[in-house]
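Pinned message: reference record for 2-keto-myo-inositol dehydratase
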Amino acid sequence: MPPALDRIRVGSAPDSWGVWFAEDPAQVPWRRFLDEVAEAGYAWIELGPYGYLPTDPRVLREETDRRGLKVSAGTVFTALHRGPAVWEETWEQVARVAELTRAMGAGHLVVIPSFWRDDKTAELLEDPELTPDQWRLLARGMERLAREVLDAYGLALAVHPHADTHIDTEAHVERFLDATDPDLVHLCLDTGHYAYCGGDSVKLIETYGERVGYLHLKQVDPDVLADVTRRGTPFGPAVRQGVMCEPPGGVPALEPVLAAAQGLGVDLFAIVEQDMYPCPPDKPLPIARRTRAFLRSCGA
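Predicted structure (tokens):
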């Protein structure tokens, strides 16, 4: 039997049910998501895109309580490398999500940087590389956001490296971590996105373990990734091509990632996210059951 991963709290997210937007006819209704994520054996969920699940905390708490579910985090997108001009707009979005996140008893806010290219058309929206001044604005902006979210809502900030954003590759992630206050800014390590961008999750945990405050569990299909990389396919079409696959069929191997995370000696959420937008409505539940069984076999 594998050693018990008693510091790892496993959950799943609307993303694993093909949910990317607050409203979209291609997505399963929110009640079905809640029913099925509980049926698959998960106790923890994320909020997903704000407005997909009920935003009235009384309603949402009633719905989650009766299914034995609890919320681990909310998620926001930001473009803080653009400087003070975007602060008010950013805070307006963050405050809505943070308020609901706190009301649901969660302690984390996952922050995803804005995309530098359109995830459907591949149109360049910005230069893929930030200037030194933009890196400075990004670092200071994330520190300010972390401080104000903690002060106002008691939530810990976890920045999510993501494909087609400015925090993606190993070099970019390390530059970001080295430029930000370790007491304020932590990382949501998404194993799939990091592998998609060429990173080694175990190495990151071993090198910057004190910065890892949250995990997303995901794998990539190396054959599909090779084609995506060769063609320069943007992230959205890559997902439709099946670049994110069901574990344990892809990379990175999750067993050593979970063992390294357990070795940090702190409690960590490990939320399954298998990007599948869009997907047939009957596809997610069997995958979720098998993934939960696989993670149990790893000791989680």
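Pinned by admin. Summary line: The chain has one domain: 8-297.
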